[in-house]
Amino acid sequence: MWTTIVLLLLLPHPLSSTDTENSTGFNQSEIGSEDFSDASVKGQTPVGGVKGRDTCSIPCDITVKLLRDEKHSVCGQLQQSLLSFGRSTRKLIRDVMEEQQRALDILSSQVTELMTKVQTLSFEVQRSNSEIYSVRPVQSHGRDCSDIKDSLVSVVPKIPSGIYIVHPENTDSSFEVFCEMDYMGGGWTVVQRRTDGLTDFKRPWADYADGFGNLAGEHWLGLKKMFYIVNQKETRFQLHVALTSQDDVTSYASYDDFSLDSETQFFSVHLGRYAGSAGDAFRGYEQEQNQDTAPFSASDVDNDGCNPFCSIDNRTVESCSTQHNHTGWWFNQCGLANLNGSPEDAEQSQGQRTNILWDTWRQNGVPHTIKSVTIKIRRIATNN
Known about the structure:
- It is a single chain.
- This protein is an alpha+beta fold.
- The protein contains nine helices and 18 strands.
- It is elongated.
């Protein structure tokens, strides 16, 4: 529309009859004049003649209106462009956020799946630790692990360690034990093992008498079963204690004779000569620390010799079992050994999950922090 108006304004205005007449008169009067003759000769256009009709200017108000309309049009187009850009930007941001959310959801799902697999693997590792040896008892009977080894050595090239069934002499029933057939020639009957602190050794007398734990892992065989094994006719047993510290240093203590009295005498322990690198903690350094010949004690059966109490490191102790967190051992005024020890509090023990005591095993005068221990017995040759 505005283009049409501009074109109309630019066209020459039609002349009225009066203008025509005036123009004619003007031209006629000028024809006879000298100026017209000179203009014709020179080929010049008279001032105010045709040139005035060919030149036309746009009024200022229309120019302003045109510029204003053009500015409004440009602003409108710019607004539309900004709105379109804003919508595109918001859509792009929304798409990016949705894509990131999908990626986070996938990552969260993968993390959850990985945690599930880790838990499953942890359970499998725990189970495999229990099943690292044959869990099902091997159907090869003997009086003890030494007897089983002697009877199988000529038949089986390599006798595996694992759970076997033994039937000691002069007993009415058989029971399962763990036999170590690889350690120092084999034939060892394991009577105690501590490895990871997962088995609770805070037990009453009945548990220590009958035994508890997992034979393939942490366990206490039981005082009654130990008594049956070591008190067979014409047998003599060696006791071996294998220790491992928190920094994986190993040591041992061995006694060339080991026996127990009956339950009526509270399974008092008897030990032979000591050999090893961990020190003789069973006997200690002084007579009052000697645990050889001591009866077994538990939290509910006190035979520790503290009557009515003992003074240890300027502390009054009424029960060694209570002092050692209700665990059982051959205490004699507490002494320097308790391989069944248990920490009173995990935080107080700085994360240590076992509190195994063998005080004579030291480094630079400081007792080793013991991570694991295995107590085992094996037949040795007799002079008979």
